[in-house]
Structure formats: C-alpha cells, structure tokens
Specification:
Distance between the termini: 31 Å
Strand content: 15-25%
Number of strands: 8
Number of domains: 1
CATH topology: Alpha-Beta Plaits
CATH superfamily: Transposase IS200-like
Radius of gyration: 17 Å
CATH class: Alpha Beta
Number of helices: 3
Largest sheet: 4 strands, antiparallel
C-alpha cells in the first residue's frame, strides 16, 4: 500500500495509508462502494429524526446530483445509497471497460457505446466538484472545502458482500446514534 505525506491541522506531517487494492484497475467493470465525508464532518446535509434522514437543501442537492450521475455517465448503474448529515454512502456498477478518464479515444468495443468510462476516482471527483460548485453558486461565494479530500472505496467482491453493504446503507439512519461519523460520538 502506498503512503502519502499529509499535513494535519496542527501543521505536523503524518502519513496516510492507501486503502486501494494494489494493482487493481478501478476503471474496470464491477461493483464499487464509496463513502464521502463532508469537510471536518460538519453536519450540513440534514439531520436524522426518529431514525429517518431528513435532507435539507444541500442534502437534496447531493441526492439529485448522485441520481444525475447515471444519466450523464451511461456506463454506470446506481444501486443503494444514502445521504447522511455529514457523509454519503453509495454503491454503483461500472458496466463497461474504462480508460483512465472519459476523455480517452474509443477502443472500438461496441458493447460500450460512446466515450470511454472513467475510473471510480474520476466519477467521485466529478460528483464532488459538481455539488461544491452548485452550493457555492447558491451562496454566491466559495465556502471553502465542502468535502474531505479523500474518500473510502471498496471493490464489492461477490453477492454476499453486495447484500451486506446494501443492508449497511439501508440501516445507516437507524444506526446514526452510534455512528462514528456522528459528532456527538466524538467526545465519547
């Protein structure tokens, strides 16, 4: 696993371990599970009330933009997802062999019409960028970082793994009270 040097909030250098599978092509067909967290895990996307997620305008934007992801990227299919107060979980499928970015020349594979699909990182980056740009336009100024720099990704291995992750996503609002992302749990 590779390590990147990062500078934490106190100005000290630390190392971040990559969770990526060494040598795995994250643009190849398959199922992927991602988690994105808001910057400093601020609860800016809504709130959980009675074990149900209630989205605010920013949370509804995240949901809308995620749903539009499959419309603008026909090489992916969306599966289970949930917007939480300060994070977002989703499963999606890339169903065509992809190049490094969607700008590469077509390979001639007729099973995947149109431009080549992008990698998981490119898909996530474009999604995060679009949400940030819209929220900044609402406020008529940049708000600084909306999302944490990195994100969690997991290659879904099999049907059992997929079903376990779907259940995790579905149950996320009910488990918010004990969630490690819940700011109320940081002091415990």
């Amino acid at each position: 696993m590779s390590r990147d040097r990062i500078i934490n909030s106190s100005g000290e250098t630390s190392k971040r371990r990559s969770l990526r599978l060494k040598g795995y092509d994250y643009s190849q067909p398959g199922a992927y599970f991602i988690t994105l967290c808001t910057h400093k895990r601020r609860c800016i996307l809504g709130e959980v009330v009675a074990d149900e997620m209630r989205l605010n305008n920013a949370g509804r934007l995240v949901e809308t933009e995620w749903l539009s992801t499959a419309r603008v990227r026909p090489y992916i299919n969306l599966d289970a997802f949930v917007v939480m107060p300060n994070h977002f979980h989703a499963i999606f499928f890339i169903h065509c062999k992809a190049g490094a970015t969607h700008r590469v020349a077509p390979t001639g594979d007729k099973s995947c019409p149109g431009p080549e699909p992008a990698s998981v990182g490119a898909i996530v980056g474009q999604f995060k960028s679009r949400v940030t740009k819209v929220i900044n336009s609402w406020r008529r100024s940049p708000i600084g970082s909306l999302w944490q720099r990195n994100y969690y990704e997991h290659v879904v291995r099999d049907e059992e793994d997929l079903n376990r992750i779907r259940e995790y996503i579905q149950d996320n609002p009910r488990r918010w009270i004990e969630d490690e992302n819940n700011p109320e749990n940081l002091s415990k």
